[in-house]
Amino acid sequence: RLGRPGVDCYCQHESGAAVLQLQFLINEGALVSASSDDTLHLWNLRQKKPAILHSLKFNRERITYCHLPFQSKWLYVGTERGNTHIVNIESFILSGYVIMWNKAIELSTKTHPGPVVHLSDSPRDEGKLLIGYENGTVVFWDLKSKRAELRVYYDEAIHSIDWHHEGKQFMCSHSDGSLTLWNLKSPSRPFQTTIPHGKIQREGRKSESCKPILKVEYKTCKNSEPFIIFSGGLSYDKACRRPSLTIMHGKAITVLEMDHPIVEFLTLCETPYPNEFQEPYAVVVLLEKDLIVVDLTQSNFPIFENPYPMDIHESPVTCTAYFADCPPDLILVLYSIGVKHKKQGYSNKEWPISGGAWNLGAQTYPEIIITGHADGSIKFWDASAITLQMLYKLKTSKVFEKQKVGEGKQTCEIVEEDPFAIQMIYWCPESRIFCVSGVSAYVIIYRFSRYEITTEIVSLEVRLQYDVEDITPEPETSPPFPDLSAQLPSSRSLSGSTNTVASEGVTKDSIPCLNVKTRPVRMPPGYQAELVIQLVWVDGEPPQQITSLAVSSAYGIVAFGNCNGLAVVDFIQKTVLLSMGTIDLYRSSDLYQRQPRSPRKNKQFIADNFCMRGLSNFYPDLTKRIRTSYQSLTELNDSPVPLELERCKSPTSDHVNGHCTSPTSQSCSSGKRLSSADVSKVNRWGPGRPPFRKAQSAACMEISLPVTTEENRENSYNRSRSSSISSIDKDSKEAITALYFMESFARKNDSTISPCLFVGTSLGMVVIISLNLPLADEQRFTEPVVVLPSGTFLSLKGAVLTFSCMDRTGGLMQPPYEVWRDPNNIDENEKSWRRKLVMNSSSASQEIGDHQYTIICSEKQAKVFSLPSQTCLYVHNITETSFILQANVVVMCNSACLACFCANGHIMIMSLPSLRPMLDVNYLPLTDMRIARTFCFTNEGQALYLVSPTEIQRLTYSQEMCDNLQDMLGDLFTPIETPEAQNRGFLKGLFGGSGQTFDREELFGEASAGKASRSLAQHIPGPGSIEGMKGAAGGVMGELTRARIALDERGQRLGELEEKTAGMMTSAEAFSKHAHELMLKYKDKKWYQF
């Protein structure tokens, strides 16, 4: 239900049946819905959350059409059998008055007329009902005399009918694309027949048939020709044309093509009375995936700018991000930039749907939702109120060259479709640095500017594809950490990426998936691309999808990782700082050095197991059905004894062809045992090696429980999914699953804090990397940044999901950031370009002792470490039988807590730093990968996920938000004064129709019509009134709302009573006058003169 901008409401029938038709009780705050399970529902719209007051279930007949006359309490219901029933809206009880199909048609007719497709009372006489049947029969039924006054027959099926306001003519739309106009005075044949989109034939030949006209509306104007508006009716030879709405006004015919199929349309008119000039001014068109409103008052028929978020699924949503309590100026800034990018040509009039009232409630902090889409677009939404409003749209695909037919197979064969699809989003609202990663293994960094520029796009290509050779002990000759220059022989800094496509027969190498534009590009105000980083092919193998992403505006560094390793890039100097395999991150404490190399694989396996198989794993309901559920990588014991992996069926796993996969698991060989060579390789780690173990997936890709033998239970625990969809290697790899920049203690017993990068892997390992930045701000643009693993390792069960830090007082520490300044502002550039940094870390000059708490959450447990001593203070095993899908450290009521969403549907909240459970609710079992992919928490006790391909579901676990929810909801019903009907005049009242008033109560009531059969329909009372009272009383303004509604109703009754009293007084005066005249006439007459 949509009203004025900001007023909308979502309701759903409990049965889940499709909605066939809706009928408003105009200006009465109620709605009747007819559903496909043959049930009528009466909704109460006078409360903030509508509820069903009554339901009427038809048992023996199927509902096909409903009609409710203006200011009437009797609803006409047509059925599939051709009968017409009448329902009292107040009591929702069926009347005994029934129009049977065999009474409506002529006795000589031998065939059934079909279902009722139209019902409407005559504008000229309320006592006459027009009934349209599917086979082309139209009956004009006299309700009082209970007989057919006239019948109309046509040889084409009828889809819809509409009256001329004078009640003398009506128009029908037919299945052959024709429109027929009928006159009640000559019902034998149509007064006029037209096929608007049919080809003109020669004389004597029948006009060409077209597609059916599904609905027509015939609206008259006082000062111009009538409007004839219909959907469908196009010629069959134009099969590729899109769905259309045709507007005929006089001799002009305008066809409006739609992007999606038309579900229904409705013409908005100036008057609710059917017997007056309608004066249409707009057409509301409901499409399968959109809602548009066409302005009829202008000759070019522009559309109104839609204030509702109908285009959230314009391209399928692939990821989401939710930010509450953002800087207050961001929404205004994004909106001001987004307005300049909006399409032109909208109607200059206000949005015509203006019902209801919008309440802001007590919420004062701004909220922004960011959605990434399959076509590479990013949308920023204002979510500060209950509704969404789009602020700004960014198209990331503009930095890449368009795909050519010849190049597609060479560079983008790892992605079958949607190569620009957004995979991950990272946004720093304070510095306005925005970063995205795409399915084609690229990362783009954007800066915000209010000025337009034209510049070249700088790009980097990174090789990130490593494996381990046989171990060769060289402890004496190998340095503790290899030279970075030797690690990155192929990392380049270029302006535009170049493809070194090898000739046929040569393995592909150093080829990115997409081509960055090399020419200067015009960038409008808003987010402008500063750097594009692409992973390249290595020895014929495609780059793996990026699984983790983090940006630090204060350090000027972006880090990202996948199932092969980690890359760290300086986006200020546009250089690669680190690019190495995950296993090489442990090298500083490993006595045995290994040289990185590209994995050797069978070419057939490469062709069949590309990691990036399009977006099947992003939006399964819209493209391909993903074969994905859950997988757990069960850790193998260090013992040389081979272990058979056990299987445990997940209650929510999705089996397809005997397999089910995890949202982020990698495909591995089934039922594989460790060979002796593998075991020897696992046991070759040096004494300084951290407790790293290789993992192997279960044979049936399900949630695997730990092995149950006593000797293995101690060292074996459930290993959850890694963060890549599949692997190009048959052995599972240790993927980078979480990254976090922070001022912290890199090594044990450090006395001062320093810039650090926390790296979490799919096997539960945490590596702290030290970042050595230049001290002086001027040197940051010239001096190199040194990135080295610190040798600090922490471990948890399961893949690491999130990090956070707290100071010694328990306050949440925010990562440092750079204060935003416009990079293209000429005035600021003339001044000293000095970066202004905000460091939120605790002071390093505190007392000797631990200064910081580090919170680390994996998909199995959460731990709190004290730094720099690296002591584990608290540990909480969150789940044993399932795994955590999403975890975030959020702020609620000025306190930090850990929020987790588990695959079994539980939402759990834990206190920090003590990790005491505060909330555990079984909210929503994971039944769709869409939920796992889009679920995210934010501050102030809120979260969201994509509940369907077209809808975002917001939820709250904050009691304060629940208490204020009623005040935040808008009012759907605001009573207004009903316009007065036009005076028909003496002659129109005398010759224009029936002068008698039609009393439906007398005709359809139980006294005259009797009771309907109980077996025909069943009345079901609804909980609406009780729920409405609870909802109104739940908010602060509940009592005032109830009092206002009661006063409005009392005022309406007093107004009606006043009108009746005035009428009685007028009648009494007229009676007194006639009596006085009669008395004067016979006053002086004698008795014998009478």
From TrEMBL:
InterPro entries: Lethal2_giant, Lgl_C_dom, LLGL2, V_SNARE_CC, WD40/YVTN_repeat-like_dom_sf, WD40_repeat_CS, WD40_repeat_dom_sf, WD40_rpt
WD repeat residue numbers: 12-53, 151-192
Compartment annotation: Cell membrane; Cytoplasm
Domain V-SNARE coiled-coil homology: start-end pairs: 1025-1085
Entries under Pfam families matching the protein: Lgl_C, LLGL, WD40
SUPFAM superfamilies the record matches: SNARE fusion complex, WD40 repeat-like
Subunit architecture: Interacts with STX1A and STX4.
Family statement: Belongs to the WD repeat L(2)GL family.
Membrane association type: Peripheral membrane protein
Keyword Acyltransferase annotated: no
Positions of region (Disordered): 471-503, 652-675
GO term, biological process aspect, one: protein transport
Record GO terms (molecular function): GTPase activator activity; myosin II binding; syntaxin binding
Name by which UniProt lists this protein: Syntaxin-binding protein 5-like
Transferase as UniProt keyword: no
Organism lineage string: Eukaryota, Metazoa, Chordata, Craniata, Vertebrata
Protein task: Plays a role in vesicle trafficking and exocytosis inhibition. In pancreatic beta-cells, inhibits insulin secretion probably by interacting with and regulating STX1A and STX4, key t-SNARE proteins involved in the fusion of insulin granules to the plasma membrane. Also plays a role in neurotransmitter release by inhibiting basal acetylcholine release from axon terminals and by preventing synaptic fatigue upon repetitive stimulation. Promotes as well axonal outgrowth.
Biased amino acid composition, Polar residues: 487-502, 652-673
Record GO cellular component, one term: plasma membrane
UniProt keywords, alphabetically: Cell membrane, Coiled coil, Cytoplasm, Exocytosis, Membrane, Phosphoprotein, Protein transport, Repeat, Transport, WD repeat
